[in-house]
């Protein structure tokens, strides 16, 4: 059974790009006679707000979408992500990292040859502290994140690490391609954040497996994430979904939309009297729609 999902984070109002994502996924489920799930990715308690979650339901209903209930809210499953992280801790695949963001950047700049070329620039590769030093910091209550050790993940998977592949489909599902995964490109990524104890990568991959998602359909900005997610699936023995990535909606200057672009929010579009079926048509036929610039 074909299962896909739309997984927004309630950190702002949804914009046209989210509409394209949600409609693309929902249409794909419809075409395949499958299921369309909505998942609220609200692990970041400082940025997520209940009114944005309410707005998600309102905006998606306005678009004419229907989704299964109850909706999975990640904030209600922190224990599940904690258990998954615990497995990695027990297997020695993650380590405590006490560094601040500034220290991480500094390390990358000082040793660029160690940094793999990540999707957002050079990525960090670190190492566990020696036990004595770590104990002192823990006793002092120093905050830390859990980072995946790419080196240990590679050792754990052996030859499978290099052989990992990703199944990628065209948006209509007519063509499928197998591409080689580059699971190390994010470096030693944070899987347990200092604040929430989990991370987008861990929670999202966990939930795709828990919810039986067969097709991950999302914007091409998240295409690199599939490489890391493939690694997590292999480490946990979770099934590997098929990926479809849609082009991003940009503004007139070619810049991708962000939640701060008030004019492109679904709420603003609705308030201007736009009809939702116009957006549906856009999602069906669009390649790279250009929004008129505000100025
Ligand atoms: N929650 C993520 C976001 O809003 C999307 C996650 C996903 O589709 O994998 O960007």
Features:
binds glutamic acid, 295 residues, alpha/beta, 3-stranded parallel sheet, single chain, 3-stranded antiparallel sheet, globular, Rossmann fold, disordered C terminus
Structure description:
The chain has one domain (3-285): 3-Layer(aba) Sandwich (Rossmann fold), CATH 3.40.50.620. It has a three-stranded parallel beta sheet. The protein has a three-stranded antiparallel beta sheet with strand order 4-7-10. The chain has eleven helices and 14 strands. Strand 5 (117-118) and strand 6 form a beta hairpin. It starts with a strand and ends with a strand. The protein is α/β, with parallel strands linked by helices. The longest helix has 17 residues, at 16-32. Residues 287-295 have low confidence and may be disordered. Helix content is 39%, strand content 17%.
What would you say about this model in short?
With 295 residues, the chain is an alpha/beta fold. The protein contains eleven helices and 14 strands.
Number of helices: 11
Sheet with most strands: 3 strands, parallel
Which consecutive residue ranges, at least 5 long each, have pLDDT under 50?
287-295
Any idea how many domains? 1
CATH class: Alpha Beta
Strand content: 15-25%
Approximate shape = globular
Please count the beta strands (DSSP E, at least 2 residues each).
14
Main β-sheet, spatial strand arrangement: 1-2-3
**Distance between the first and last residues' Cα:** 47 Å
CATH level-two architecture = 3-Layer(aba) Sandwich
User: Which small-molecule ligands are present, each listed once?
Assistant: glutamic acid
Overall residue-averaged pLDDT value: 91
CATH topology: Rossmann fold
Question: Mind telling me the CATH superfamily name?
Answer: HUPs
Order of helices and strands: EHEHEHEHEEHEHHEEEHEHEEHHE
Helicity, as a percent range: 25-40%
- Structural class given helices, strands, pairing? alpha/beta
Overall radius of gyration: 20 Å
